[in-house]
Description:
Number of strands: 12
Largest sheet: 7 strands, mixed
CATH topology of the largest domain: Rossmann fold
Distance between the termini: 54 Å
Shape: globular
Strand order of the largest sheet: 6-5-4-7-8-12-11
Keywords: Methyltransferase, Transferase
InterPro entries: SAM-dependent_MTases_sf
CATH class of the largest domain: Alpha Beta
Strand content: 15-25%
Number of helices: 7
Protein name: Possible SAM-dependent methyltransferase
Number of domains: 2
Low-confidence stretches: 1-53, 55-69
Radius of gyration: 21 Å
Structural class: alpha/beta
Helix content: 25-40%
GO biological process, one term: methylation
CATH architecture of the largest domain: 3-Layer(aba) Sandwich
Order of helices and strands: EEEHHEHEEEHEEEHHHEE
Organism: Aurantimonas manganoxydans (strain ATCC BAA-1229 / DSM 21871 / SI85-9A1)
CATH superfamily of the largest domain: Vaccinia Virus protein VP39
Amino acid sequence: MAPSGGRSSLTTACSRAPSGCKPRSTGLCGVNHLLTINATSLKGKSYIDVGNRNHVMQISAYLGALRRRSDPYVDDTSLEFQFRAKRFVRIRNLIDAVLAEQERCEIVDLGGTEKYWAVAGDYLDRRRGRVFVTLVNTEPQVVARPDQFRAVRESASDLTLFDGRGFDLAHSNSVIEHVGSRANMRDFALNMRRLAPRYYCQTPNYWFPYEPHFRTAGFQYLPKAVRIAMLQRFALGFFDRIEDFEDARNVVRDHDLIGRRQMAAFFPDGEISYETVLGLRKSVIATRDAGARDS
Length: 295
């Protein structure tokens, strides 16, 4: 099934990707070159018309030369791991504030995985028996450390989630942009605010020029039809080439970046701050430190 509508185009600068790319990551190579991409629907078939054949050859050569790299959730040499480690200072401060008030800190991690918490491995090891994390995810999980983690297969946007139960800290890292709609984002944020007096919610900033999921500069600014067509044509970021239109459309729908204004609306009682890289605002973070929960 092809996207309906007319023709739209994007002219974007190409740049060489750094060595050690992510699995299935792509970019448009060739320093100081410009690539014009046209997403077109013609006779029921969607395709991307690349204006210069030389650029097509450059892209093909680049895609073929991509190397796999280790998992950034456990590879402490990866930039992603290092960014998370720096952000974890804020989370650690919230946990320490809880532990200063009471013996145990119970965390609910909306959309979380045990693997993410590798960034806090030493910190958690030193607080074994005092910090416990409940992981909420729509995907089934088997935890390796049941003394510190418990996995619950539920939707983090379900307003009946843990009805009548409270936690000390609600946590979420790069999840709210994946829940599928602005209404779901609102419910996700309501759960974070409801489930604990303290919360930490981080999301990639819409206004940061590099889209982290698709590893493509400016990808989030393109019309949806163009993004869908690109996913049907190329392997981008964490994704192999997605030939089916409906599948590509669902991926675009489930990767909806937001900025400070939306985060402030979703978390009106929180403090909004940024994670910065080279002076640019890479992530938007909402936090609340409201003291101990009611017993």
